[in-house]
TrEMBL record:
CDD domains: GH43_XlnD-like (cd18827). Residues 1-25 form the signal peptide. It comes from the Bacteria. One of its GO terms (molecular function) is hydrolase activity. It comes from Terriglobus aquaticus. Belongs to the glycosyl hydrolase 43 family. Keywords: Carbohydrate metabolism, Glycosidase, Hydrolase, Polysaccharide degradation, Signal, Xylan degradation. This is Glycoside hydrolase family 43 protein. InterPro entries: Glyco_hydro_43, Glyco_hydro_beta-prop_sf, Glycosyl_Hydrlase_43_Enz. PROSITE patterns: PROKAR_LIPOPROTEIN.
Length: 358
């Protein structure tokens, strides 16, 4: 009887109710039910957890031509490296009160609202600034010799669940700089108000400064527009976080389609580097999943509690696009190094957010 009384009182508040509802539920079990998604970026917006991923394997049914404007139709009829990229035409998002119970928000970004983007809509990065929500994304998978529009775009919305509408009418970054393919954007707001864009595929990574309205690349102090910061073994998927005055630059390395894929990091006292590889902290566990990577890091507001949010290939899958989302704890040692992450089958338990202060 005493046990049940204690349980009743623990669940008496709204936060307690959520915790008790999720006492036996686990994040990775529930995320795996959402379908094939990859490249997640996680945030806390408007009192909820949000994840913005790539729709990894959206199926085989193409959208009707009427969904695309003439420019988009022409792009889709041209050179496309992989036919499946033609299916990547929108982005979903997910919200949760506790990291376990998720609500799907369909098509928060869609090519119908980005006139220059036709396919390969990937790897979103979300930012709240100036009373608006901004979503950065890659589109059209441009290569070094391509002359058509493509690269990193930015869309804006009044709500974290969209719809996000193209803000520029063209890419923000529309060509290779320093060998970096303009994909995989990550926008980082520093504590002094400065905003940085990290991005890059094909083994190169750049950092650039963004204007206060997030719609322009502006020069750094030395006049550089795009600074290469590529660390050893970098492949793609950059991410930046700041803890106790130290900048942690993170990225994915290895082959995204196999068990070599994982996440490494470097430390610096500057958001512009230099970044010297410190080690790999997220790797395949043959008993759990393969190829964990292209991650983000979620810090619970007001705490030193961190979670790594990433995608992975479930055991037994054979398609390279068959990836699911996962969340596990990420910890630091006493000297500030990131400890190797233990990837788990079930993930983390319910973690409701504290109610907003009144």
């Amino acid at each position: 009887m005493r046990h049940w009384k204690r349980l009743w009182w623990a669940c008496a508040s709204w936060t307690g109710v959520l915790a008790c509802m999720g006492a036996h539920a686990q994040s990775n079990v529930e995320l795996g039910k959402l379908g094939w998604y990859a490249d997640p970026e996680a945030h806390v917006f408007a009192g909820q957890y949000w994840i913005y991923p790539t729709s990894s394997d959206p199926g085989t049914a193409p959208r009707p031509a009427s969904d695309f404007n003439p420019q988009q139709q022409k792009l889709r009829e041209g050179h496309v490296i992989h036919p499946v990229y033609l299916l990547h035409t929108s982005l979903d998002a997910f919200s949760s009160p506790d990291l376990v119970h998720w609500t799907r928000h369909k098509d928060v970004l869609d090519v119908r609202n980005v006139p220059w983007a036709a396919y390969a809509i990937w790897a979103p990065s979300a930012v709240y600034r100036n009373g608006k929500y901004y979503l950065f994304f890659a589109a059209n998978d441009i290569q070094k010799t391509d002359t058509f529009a493509g690269g990193i775009g930015v869309a804006v919305s009044d709500k974290p669940g969209g719809p996000f509408i193209d803000a520029l009418g063209k890419p923000l970054v529309g060509r290779f700089e320093n060998g970096a393919q303009p994909i995989d954007p990550m926008v980082f707001q520093d504590s002094d108000g400065s905003v940085y864009l990290y991005y890059g595929g094909q083994g190169h990574c750049n950092v650039a400064r963004l204007s206060s309205d997030l719609l322009h690349v502006i020069p750094m102090q030395d006049g550089t527009m795009f600074r290469e910061i590529t660390p050893a073994n970098y492949v793609e998927g950059p991410f930046m976080l700041k803890r106790n005055g130290t900048y942690y630059f993170m990225w994915s390395e290895g082959d995204w389609g196999d068990a070599s894929y994982g996440v490494a990091y470097a430390r610096s006292k500057s958001p512009e580097g230099p970044f010297v590889r410190a080690g790999k902290i997220l790797t395949t566990d043959p008993k759990v999943a393969n190829g964990p990577g292209h991650h983000s890091v979620l810090q619970i507001p007001g705490t030193d509690e961190f979670y790594i949010v990433y995608h992975r290939h479930p055991l037994g899958t054979t398609g390279i696009n068959q990836r699911v989302l996962a969340i596990d704890r990420m910890r630091f040692d006493a000297t500030g190094n990131i400890l190797p992450v233990a990837i788990t089958p079930d993930g983390v338990p319910s973690r409701p957010l504290a109610p907003p202060a009144r």
